[in-house]
């Protein structure tokens, strides 16, 4: 199991439009093979900063989604709303 942390900064005034596009992206990812779950967070006091935390079965499932036509399509709607490129970090459980 891996977790993908995505940080995004939204252009001021476009938060509502972003929320709509982000909900669509999350809905689309629900159908992706290997998608386990996810949540979207807003930073307290900074409505332009968002954090997406998604959980995937494995790296292969994430890469398949990341390069999919579906993600490309939903990102075409999201990207123009951002002030900078999204930052993606990939985490895995520590070995015990």
Automatic annotation (TrEMBL):
<feature type="domain" description="ABM">
    <location>
        <begin position="2"/>
        <end position="91"/>
    </location>
</feature>
<dbReference type="Pfam" id="PF03992">
    <property type="entry name" value="ABM"/>
</dbReference>
<protein>
    <submittedName>
        <fullName>DUF1330 domain-containing protein</fullName>
    </submittedName>
</protein>
<dbReference type="InterPro" id="IPR007138">
    <property type="entry name" value="ABM_dom"/>
</dbReference>
<dbReference type="InterPro" id="IPR011008">
    <property type="entry name" value="Dimeric_a/b-barrel"/>
</dbReference>
